[in-house]
Write a sequence for this structure.
């Protein structure tokens, strides 16, 4: 797939992810319409700069570089991707994941006992 069909697929994917985020968080996000020309991210949510990919061939290292390149000082890159008939997946740094868990889980007991 190339050209216009690829752009349409990308735009559709960005709208889908915006919808998922809006439903989960009660926000009113929209895709960044000028991102492809300006080198910006696809979606902005606070300090998080989202890059959205829906492709069969995974190119995570290349996509991650693109997500990082779209960030300014203090921004956090987020890579969201999926293949057909698979669920959406997200890449963020381990440091950011731990900060999110720490912030969101003040009442969670992290002790884990494996049941055998």
């Amino acid at each position: 797939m190339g050209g216009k069909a690829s752009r349409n697929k990308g735009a559709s994917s960005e709208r889908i992810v915006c919808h998922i985020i809006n439903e989960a968080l009660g926000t009113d996000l929209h895709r960044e319409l000028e991102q492809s020309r300006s080198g910006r991210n696809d979606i902005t949510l606070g300090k998080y700069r989202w890059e959205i990919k829906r492709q069969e061939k995974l190119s995570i290292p290349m996509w991650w570089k693109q997500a990082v390149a779209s960030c300014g000082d203090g921004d956090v890159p987020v890579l969201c991707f999926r293949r057909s008939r698979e669920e959406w997946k997200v890449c963020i740094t381990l440091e950011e994941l731990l900060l999110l868990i720490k912030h969101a889980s003040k009442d969670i007991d992290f002790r884990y006992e494996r049941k055998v």
